[in-house]
Specification:
homodimer; alpha/beta; Rossmann fold; 2 domains; 8-stranded mixed sheet; glycoprotein (chains A, B); signal (chains A, B); transmembrane (chains A, B); ANP_Clearance_Receptor (chains A, B); Peripla_BP_I (chains A, B)
Chain lengths: 474, 474
Amino acid sequence: MRVTSFSGVDIPHFGSIIEPVELELAFQNDQSFISRFERSLKGKELQIAVLAPQDPSLQYSLQKILPPITMAVLSEQVRQLLPNRKITVRYRDTKCSSTDGPLAAFDFYINHTADVFLGPMCDYVIAPVARYAGRWGIPVLTPGAQAEAFRHKNQQYSTLTRLAGSYSLVGEGFSKILALFGWRHVALFYHNYAVGSGKGHSLCHFTLGTVFTALNSTPVYKSFDETQEDRIDFHGALKSIAAKARIVILCASPPKVRDILLAAEDLKMVSSGEYVFFNVELFTNLRKGYMPWHDANATDENNERAKRAYEALLTVTVRPPPDSTEYMAFDKQVKELALNKFNFSFGDEPVNPFVTAFYDAVILYATALNETLANGGSITNGTDITSRMWNKTFQGITGNVSIDSNGDRNADYSLLDMDPKSGAFHVVAHYSGKTKSIIEVANVSIHWPGGRTTWPPDTPKCGFDGSGCPSKSM
Amino acid sequence: MRVTSFSGVDIPHFGSIIEPVELELAFQNDQSFISRFERSLKGKELQIAVLAPQDPSLQYSLQKILPPITMAVLSEQVRQLLPNRKITVRYRDTKCSSTDGPLAAFDFYINHTADVFLGPMCDYVIAPVARYAGRWGIPVLTPGAQAEAFRHKNQQYSTLTRLAGSYSLVGEGFSKILALFGWRHVALFYHNYAVGSGKGHSLCHFTLGTVFTALNSTPVYKSFDETQEDRIDFHGALKSIAAKARIVILCASPPKVRDILLAAEDLKMVSSGEYVFFNVELFTNLRKGYMPWHDANATDENNERAKRAYEALLTVTVRPPPDSTEYMAFDKQVKELALNKFNFSFGDEPVNPFVTAFYDAVILYATALNETLANGGSITNGTDITSRMWNKTFQGITGNVSIDSNGDRNADYSLLDMDPKSGAFHVVAHYSGKTKSIIEVANVSIHWPGGRTTWPPDTPKCGFDGSGCPSKSM
């Protein structure tokens, strides 16, 4: 068993550090590290238990989410909300396993080391942990649990607060965006794991499933398994979609979206101006001046063709973080802390929405705990603390965060379009999860493909096969 | 909180009672009763934790399985295997809930009151409990967990021993039975919950799914939701099946099987002698002289017609218990104990296969524990004890019980046919899970429908539509 201790280290700080800080990392010999970080203060303690996988390839790995949690714990805001309270952060690797995750939660519970759980993140871990935590009366705050099942909190997930919206909210947002243009007739074309792969359905399946539900039905839906098929016949698939739809919602990895759009360009679907494609990017904050069509390994000619193809694409993402100095400082400090304390480099990727959500989770919990204490309650009353987090709007690191009366964040989504000159994507409208309405961005407009000045209809005037108009020869 | 205590009660006993026995029932105010039964002896303790639902409508409710567990604990056999060891049995109501079940297991674990788990029974409870118990090194013995997923024990269910076979074994047995008659081309017609009912798939779906797998494929499969549809169009369904198959495997509740066979009789499928029906009854021990066609509420005429219809039916069940005096005494004592100590009346139903399996579970565990102790091991070494239960054949209450090297019982199944004179079903052959072979019963033969002396082919000589033979007019 290796134990590494630091005392009084100079942690890069976002808020003020009030006291010398002690950071202690203990690697257990079972390979799942338990670690502890304490904001040393006299007085009572708040024990935060973080449950997430350690696999750095995941957007919500411990290495990525511990820095914002640390920063929130050290922030001026939390110091004011919870004066004279020692805060201890412990974390465990769930391995995204339905055995390891719940057993880690059990350990925290029996050792009385969890006043609140941050995470877990993987659905098969959240489900049991949030069920048990409900019985234990311990709040669970996670930007995961976006599936529909987690919306039902009376029976099963009574202390679960969802910090990053849900797939069904994406569906609602999409239907509002489509309604802007009078589109009801759309096709869904997305990545899903093949039947028999043992992997269940993909996130794309769940996400677009809510679009299907929100629209009541949809004329065409097709899926492909991007992990199994090397060369998928996108030409053939697009031709069959073209026989039934003009508006196509895609969900796949960025390289596959590029392949699909290149195939569409090849089929003259882009230059005709008759087609509009959407794609969905929920788990990344897009870099400023994002150019998804550009592939460093492709030829200039191929990139030029891809750029033309992307003229027909609109992208739906989580609302991008603000450009503020405060947010820039946050982004920078997260990366420094990750590198210095968790040996992880973000590279030049912007921090993702899970990172900001975990910062906000600490602020929200501290706000609610402060209220519970002010009302004579105790830190052990997780049900009361949970109820104070619901139906609340507060200032998070990316702006206002609104939690609805069911304990789910009214997440905002944005619609991005490409400037055909620069090739960079920029926001043209937002969807507000709170007001359920579209807010258009002033002084920008969507560039429609094929030289159109306005959007195409979802059904061609003469029908998909032209049979709706009299033949010219008549 | 009500507490009822008995001391030195005269429990009806199957084996010898060695010492005065203490039975204590404590009803917790959360409605989930925790109870304790002890075979009081000086010396070290064996703590048995029973996890099952309390709902008496279920075949494996606590009221039905605690009597055989009690009797096994008190038996001469266990006394000899574990001399000088106090045995405490505690039980908890899992409510078949994926929250209550695991939390009950967790309570046993943290209180150090489980050397072994008997149960749980419901799949959604077994899955987490068996995962956690594997990590805790606590053996789990259950006649549940018949689904395919529980076969894989290396990763997830390392201490799970399955006492009542599995659906895949039923599939194997069925394919051997069908092969006896050269039948490969069959139809499956069964109860399944409707999509959107939120109930997932039925046991019939899982059971017949293994037949599908064992046969590689099947020409026709149709399902109906017997819980939702009051009047199902069995005539229509049978007509469409008749266009594609002659051998039909049914799985449904006994009244629905009767409805289907009456419809078949009406369509002359029985009198033609061309059709053979099977049904599957895995969870009940059929009464001696079982007459499933008889409905006390039906007219004599209807019952006569049903009896004729059942001439076309063969039934696959778990192998019935023996007629021995020992087994009769067991059956009687289970019922007396259930009535006297657990306030539950079996009525005149035979005890079901889960009841006998729990008796056997205690014998098997005690045998393995005895071996572990004799080899210098300890009761806390659940992995060693588990390995000694696997690849073992022992004398259970219904005869030899064989556990394979994967820790799954080589369950036996039986084929029953109706004597057309008496109307009673009787065993005509057994399938041995251990030898994977059919054992025909001497001096009995199957009565084929429609006056045939031998079985019909699975495909009519002239094809299903008669087109395979030259027309008579030619």
